Amino acid sequence: MCPRDVMTNAGGQQAASPNAHRRAVIAAWLEWQLESGVDCTLEWPRPKPRDLAGAEPTIRPDTPSATQSLAPAPRRLSARSSTTGDARAIARSCSTLEELRAALERFDGCALAETATRLCFADGAPDAPLMIIGEAPGAEEDRLGKPFVGPSGQLLDRMLAWIGRDRRNSWITNVVFWRPPGNRTPTAAEIAVCLPFVERQIELIRPRLLLFLGGIAARALLGVDEGVSRLRGRLFQWQSEALASPVPALITLHPAYLLRQPAQKRFAWRDLLQAAEILGWPQEEAGNPRQNRQGKERPS
Predict the structure, then answer these.
(1) DSSP element (H, E) containing 269
(2) pLDDT score at 23
(3) How far is CA 280 from CA 100, 274, 283, 300, in A?
(4) Which of 27, 92, 116, 263 is deepest in the core (most CB within 10 A)?
(5) What residue segments make up the domains of the chain, in order of their start?
(6) What is the DSSP letter of 247?
(7) CA atoms of 232 and 254, how far apart (whole Å)
């Protein structure tokens, strides 16, 4: 124990000072944060000197109260709307996927870019008939700059192999291009500002089928509000003024959910069979998900 954390009482006995207790509390709190998945600090506000002294700040009669300052101001809302509008204008000006990626590299309208390590644009073949859209990058995706390369991505690769396909037959992306801190769910504002770039990807690739992984991607692009269990198995249509005809879309369970609930993989298997049928892929290439083409057991 640090000497300044020890105090001596009137009887000459040593005891832990309040500083030692505070240090122990802070250490326990930090350990709990790490166990919860928090791996970075976004902001650490500095207390003002008068706050350290315990003085109460004075509020003049013409100063808005603390409760009033918390209310959303119209100026903030218009600024957010402007950011989304800027994103839409930038995305529409891109005529190739390379231009779209470069625009995202320069884009500063999403706060997630400030805390993420890399942009996770997309992976796969630009001329793929199948476009897969997930939620947001995770820690491994943030490190490598590619979507679905962690445990969820490894399962996604096996899911594609169930129907005899891989990333060479698919284009994979997310509705958010930067990792949210601590792998939290992206906010509605973060999704809204990234959405024009996702929509432009679809318009440039012109896939024959969209496959949404999880409810967040489906809600963002289809406007649905039901759970995935009620949405999967149904054929939807995604429309855009830039496309001559709507793009068919399916919704299935997210690989991260399947890792937690492996018994649900049978539903994802049915969804992939439906996708293969819509794309006209040969059914003999879509075997049992627990067997490979030599009839051996496939790892689940």
Answers:
(1) helix 265-279
(2) 73
(3) 30, 10, 8, 26
(4) 116
(5) 74-285
(6) E
(7) 11
Token pair 């999967």 is found at 232
Give the Cα separation of 290 and 105 in Å (integer). 40
* pLDDT tier, 46 (very low <50, low <70, confident <90, very high otherwise): very low
User: Following DSSP, what letter does each residue of 107-170 receive, concatenated?
Assistant: --S-THHHH-SS----EE-TT-SEEEEES---HHHHHHT-SS-SHHHHHHHHHHHHTT--GGGE
pLDDT digits 0-9 by tens, 248-298? 999 999 999 999 999 999 999 999 999 999 999 986 555 555 554 444 334
251 and 236 Cβ atoms separated by less than 8 Å: yes
Tokens of 262: 């492996």
State pTM to two decimals.
0.71
- Residue of 67 and 14 predicted with greater confidence: 14
The two structure tokens encoding residue 220? 């963002």
Give the phi and the psi of residue 152 in degrees, each rounded to 5.
Answer: -65, -40
* Closest C-alpha to 269, from 160, 167, 186, 184: 160
Classify residue 4 by its DSSP letter.
G
First-last CA distance in the chain: 50
Residue for token pair 């400030």: 114
Token pair for residue 47?
Answer: 């207390």
